[in-house]
Design a protein that fits this description.
458 residues, mainly alpha, two-stranded antiparallel sheet
Length: 458
């Protein structure tokens, strides 16, 4: 039998062929045999039909949810950092819910925990033009907040900018950022105060005399004087720059450091300004206005800051016009140079007035100082023998700078003492006395004598 005409192994699949022994029978191309049951489910539907599709889709959804959850868990910190950075540059983004949530999460406990400062009242001043952004560092410096970011978040979400008004507000150092924001809206303090101005060129006793004329304040002039003459260690500890012996020699008074300005003296409430409060205000104003750059005098200047302050206090009593201050400082700086002025004596009239006033004030009770005429011309010569603490202030008999300032100088006088104009070579000057406030300067004694003859002795 040839292979072509004979029956082969596949003949059992032919139409009409005999059923194989294994029971599988196919009746046609699309026929069904008993073995085809493996391709149908129990309901007669093909596997992979609608039910299978639904199960598959459900599986995909569950899988996607698990993947998304994993991605969120892993990527959330990265996303939060990006969102926080975006929100800091664009505060308006805080209006978007999930961004606000990210910021809250990033700030954590700093947003809800009270600051660990004092619970005592802190009267905080909001100046005209202040914004939450300008207030944040001031609040931190005042000990009201610990986190500027947390405060700014609450301020922006609470729309503090639209509610903020200038004034004084009662706050504390143990509030949450949200309470601070609310306090800057609700806790306005009506403070009764009187403005008191201390002009440039006053000596300590003049300040005390003025304080004794004030009515209705809690400031004890005598206590103020004692604190300024011999400041206690606990006071100085709060102003570490005063502990630098180049700024203030050990044991020196606060003469010259009580900054001339206008101060609001609180009266009529439960926390009126005391003598120590005022001294602290004046020292703070001095440091704020003078600044660390001036306090750190360059070595090439040849003087410590305290010596600069002494010179500035003399210039303050001599000068009327700001543009003459460097020239007057230059005259005294040239007299400190032995090569230009062999006696090394400043011969400054204000120092003589200072010595005379000190002698007169020592002979009267402090409550009478308000009736005394300070810096007046001498009615008689100084005694030949002066107390040891005053003798060095007589610059006609003692060489060099006095041991301490004789008044509270202005910034202009301090700058003049820091940068005196010595190039002119002036060694003399005299006030013209014509109402212009100007002086006549001279390089030689002969030129000075001509100016004296012209303008008269001062």
């Amino acid at each position: 039998m040839s292979i072509r005409g004979g029956r082969g192994p596949r003949d059992d699949l032919a139409v009409g062929g005999a059923a194989p022994q294994n029971g599988y029978q196919r009746t046609g191309r699309y026929g069904r045999g008993p073995g085809d049951q493996r391709r149908y489910d129990r309901y007669g539907d093909r596997r992979g039909g609608l039910g299978g599709l639904l199960k598959f889709l459900l599986f995909l959804l569950v899988l996607a949810a698990l993947v998304f959850a994993a991605l969120v868990t892993v990527a959330r910190p990265i996303a939060r950092l990006a969102v926080v950075s975006l929100a800091e540059d664009n505060p308006s983004a805080l209006r978007i819910g999930f961004i606000s949530d990210f910021i809250r999460e990033d700030l954590g406990a700093s947003l809800t925990q009270p600051h660990d400062g004092s619970g005592d009242e802190i009267v905080f001043t909001v100046e005209p033009g202040d914004t939450p952004a300008t207030l944040a560092p001031k609040l931190a410096a005042a000990g009201v907040i610990g986190s500027e970011r947390a405060f700014l978040f609450e301020a922006r979400t609470g729309d503090l900018a639209s509610k903020l008004a200038a004034g004084r507000f009662a706050l504390a150092g143990n509030l949450t950022p949200e309470q601070v924001v609310q306090g800057l809206v609700d806790n306005r303090v009506v403070v009764q105060s009187v403005p008191v101005t201390f002009r440039e060129g006053l000596r300590l006793e003049q300040i005390v005399a003025k304080l004794s004329t004030l009515q209705g304040t809690a400031i004890d002039p005598q206590k103020f004087y004692e604190l300024a003459k011999d400041p206690p260690d606990e006071l100085l500890a709060d102003f570490p720059w005063l502990l630098d012996t180049d700024v203030r020699p050990k044991g020196a008074s606060l003469e010259g450091f009580l900054y001339p300005a206008t101060y609001d003296i609180r009266t009529g409430d439960d926390k009126p300004t005391t003598a120590e409060d005022l001294i602290r205000m004046m020292l703070t104003a001095f440091h704020d206005r003078v600044g660390p750059e001036r306090l750190d005098v360059a070595a090439k200047r040849g003087l410590t800051f305290h010596e600069v302050l002494v010179l500035a206090s003399i210039v303050e009593r001599e000068a009327v016009l700001d543009d003459e201050r460097p020239l007057i400082a230059g005259v005294y700086q040239n007299r400190l140079d032995p090569k230009k002025w062999p006696t090394h004596r400043l011969q400054s009239d204000p120092t003589i007035f200072y010595v005379n006033d000190s002698l007169q004030l020592a002979a009267m009770p402090p409550e009478q100082w308000k009736n005394y005429v300070f810096w007046d011309k001498l009615k008689e010569s100084l005694p030949a023998s002066l107390p040891d603490d005053l003798a060095p202030y007589n610059t006609y008999t003692s060489a060099g700078l006095p041991p301490g300032p004789i008044s509270s100088p202005s910034i202009a006088s301090i700058d003049a003492a820091l940068n005196p104009n010595t190039k002119t070579g002036y060694l003399f000057f005299i006030a013209k006395g014509d109402g212009s406030g100007t002086s006549a300067f001279a390089k030689t004694h002969a030129e000075h004598e001509k100016n004296v003859a012209k303008y008269g002795k001062p």
